[in-house]
Amino acid sequence: MSADSEPADEWNIRAVDVGEYLDRVELARPEPTADALWSLHEAHVETFPFENVDVVLGGHRGLALDVLAEKFLRRRRGGYCYEHALLFAAVLEQLGYRVQRRIARVKPHQPGASTHMVLAVEAEGAEYFVDIAFGAGMLHPMPMRDGAHADQAGWRHRLTWDGVAWTLEKRTRQGWEPQHASTELPQHRSESV
């Protein structure tokens, strides 16, 4: 992750009450370690469902963090990838992690827009790929390393780097199937809200 990551206050991260979040996912306030990132990632995925009901019904209120905190923490709902990633990034930054938000293109070898958000998170000097809201995807972070493999509750994933983008692949009967790809360019608030 480059040293020129976007400043934490660009996203108004204080709109999310970390104590309220930790109560919701039933974790104590951790130090920003790799083990804690693993636990936070798992707790988030187990607590908050992936859903897009508001978008389908025309009631989506935007991606501001105060709106997301109210939806996830007080109304006990879930959301789609951008909502999950923005909320989780705000929590991680307040806990002391360095976080970079990145956009990703689903089905990366086909034409189309980048419609997914992932996070690059630094913990204890190492960088991790964090994707908390991609369907039946990641239960835990993966090391941001070309060829990294992970067994996610029986679902095998691999992360590859082609010099331009990181591609998350899932092992299927047909072989390694690309799920999405993201460059190392940071996403800024003005580009997503």
Automatic annotation (TrEMBL):
It holds the Pfam family Acetyltransf_2. This is Arylamine N-acetyltransferase. Belongs to the arylamine N-acetyltransferase family. Residues 173-193 are annotated as: Disordered. InterPro entries: Arylamine_N-AcTrfase, Arylamine_NAT_domain_sf, Papain-like_cys_pep_sf. It comes from the Bacteria. It comes from Allosaccharopolyspora coralli. SUPFAM superfamilies: Cysteine proteinases. One of its GO terms (molecular function) is acetyltransferase activity.
